[in-house]
Specification:
alpha/beta
Length: about 525
């Protein structure tokens, strides 16, 4: 028996080896069939580093958690963002970076919307990680690789909202997979928030800029401009788009020398553009001095845990908008798409007629009595409901009228601006109307499973994506098969209504804007 095995040994070993190879090949083939492109991770070379991303399906890849500046910690807290030292080798860009320090205000907002829609608030989770090492961006793009200049895709860089206090670039509604399928490269980013991002305490000396968050955005744009061609994007066609505080920040960037030349178009969605949206250095310094003891030093401020700063915000500054030290542009330097939602403030109004009447009086307190009387009379002719009258004035002052004025200023300077009014109300008795932020999942095509929707919502989403992408390509949102969107000019102040129908209409409540923001 022993001899027989010895004599046949090489043949048996060869057969076993062949069988093992065949089994391994079959196993690999089965795994490939089950998982497909997930096995072939997309790779992009950026300088001396190789970024390994994630295949998202339908040809789109994501690269998550790319550091665009050094961590602003320790001595770098409150300083302008510092360049990231070159990193070498293979880096897995498959996990989003931490959100910048913040409270759970963003999560509470989503939970309130979910509850109104009849969904369980517990479905909403907050960011996985939060910390000061948060200056990261994310890229979604199809077939990531360098392309000839004529083949490069336009780039859309998203600036998130949240009163410059909350939010992060990888919220579920901001994922760029579906938008990237329309032929653009999508970038989202984090920037410093609250007292870490918009803070001008004199003890900090030259670091007390009050625009740290804006400078983070500039640093991210610098990274995009330098590197997006490696992902197939066109650095000459970068469109900034953002909502709420993101729209405010984009308007401020339009007037910042540091940001010039880093974008070709702007999209401002429900940007808070009232005069109080920006501060002078002196105003920002007075504000910060009122929050801390007189003997605070740069060292003591930098030694405070970020959790203590966030707790201070929650205690003393509930509902505060963190205005950057900046100025609003006299006119926009590039083509712009600007708009607001029909019911911006409705979800934030106080309950009860008495409280609403008191708040309306507060909204009108800045006007001379004759002007306030005219505004009150006009709103009474437009709406019987006190809540609706308050909504007209509050949203008019903060969103609708400043947007129209910015468009008019652009047109007067010879720049094209396109104005929209988002009016689509999702089905169901939620009572939120076309609420602040409602347009975002239509633009990204990322409606949560708990958001009710029907065929009309699908049509609006498809139209908005086409308009937004067309604008990113050329600075003109119009295209074949879409209702004509006229640009704003003095003879025809038209806004595109994005609602149950999509069509240009005269600017809603232009007569009220003439009283709220007289020329």
């Amino acid at each position: 028996m022993g001899k027989e095995m010895t004599a046949q040994g090489p043949a048996v070993i060869a057969a076993l080896s062949h069988a093992r190879r065949a089994f391994a090949w079959l196993l690999a083939a089965a795994l490939l069939a089950a998982h497909g492109p997930a096995l072939a991770a997309p790779v992009v070379r950026v300088g001396p580093q190789v970024l390994v991303g994630t295949a998202e399906g339908k040809g789109v890849a994501s690269f998550r958690g790319i550091a665009y500046a050094r961590a602003p910690v320790g001595a770098l807290r409150w300083q302008a963002p510092q360049p990231m030292p070159p990193r070498r080798g293979r880096i897995h860009a498959t996990r989003f970076g931490p959100a910048c320090p913040q409270s759970d205000g963003n999560t509470r907002w989503y939970r309130n919307v979910a509850k109104a829609m009849g969904a369980a608030p517990k479905l909403i989770a907050g960011p996985e990680r939060v910390g000061e090492d948060c200056l990261y961006l994310n890229v979604w793009t199809a077939a990531p690789r360098p392309l000839a200049p004529s083949k490069r895709r336009p780039v859309m860089v998203w600036i998130h909202g949240g009163s410059n206090e909350n939010g992060y670039g990888h919220e579920p509604n901001y994922h760029g997979t579906q938008l990237a399928q329309q032929g653009v490269a999508v970038v989202s980013l984090n920037y410093r928030l609250g007292l870490l991002g918009f803070f001008a305490h004199p003890a900090l000396g030259k670091d007390a800029s009050g625009q740290q968050g804006l400078l983070d955005q500039v640093a991210a744009l610098r990274w995009v401009k330098a590197n997006i061609a490696q992902f197939g994007g066109d650095p000459a066609r970068i469109t900034l788009f953002g909502e709420s505080a993101g729209g405010t920040d984009i308007a401020a960037l339009a007037a910042m020398p540091e940001a010039q030349g880093r974008f070709a178009q702007l999209i401002l969605q429900s940007g808070y553009l009232a005069p109080a949206a920006v501060l002078s250095p002196a105003e920002a310094a007075r504000f910060s001095l009122g929050l801390f003891a007189e003997d605070e030093t740069a060292s003591s401020l930098r030694a405070m845990p970020w959790q203590s700063l966030v707790a201070l915000q929650e205690k003393k500054l509930a509902g505060h908008f963190y205005a950057p030290v900046a100025r609003m542009p006299l006119h926009l330097p590039v083509p712009a798409l600007i708009g607001s939602n029909a019911d911006e403030n409705l979800m934030y109004l106080p309950q009860g007629e008495a409280a609403q009447t008191t708040e309306l009086a507060a909204e009108l307190a800045d006007f001379a009595p004759p002007q306030a009387a005219r505004i009150r009379a006009l709103t009474q002719s437009k709406a019987e409901d006190p809540a609706r009258r308050l909504e007209l004035v509050g949203a008019g002052k903060a969103f609708h009228c400043p947007s129209a004025r910015l468009a008019a200023q652009a047109a007067a300077a010879g720049q094209r601006a396109y104005v929209y009014r988002f009016a689509r109300v999702r089905p169901g008795g939620h009572g939120l109307g076309a609420y602040h932020g409602a347009e975002i999942p239509y633009v990204f095509d990322t409606a949560d499973a708990w958001l009710p929707g029907d065929a009309a919502d699908r049509r609006v989403s498809e139209a908005m994506q086409r308009y937004w992408v067309n604008f990113a390509r050329s600075g003109n949102p119009n295209g074949a098969g879409l209702p004509l969107w006229p640009h704003w000019h003095s003879a025809q102040r038209a806004a595109l209504e994005l609602g149950d129908t999509v069509a240009p209409r005269p600017m809603p409540h232009a007569d009220l804007c003439a009283l709220l923001m007289p020329e």
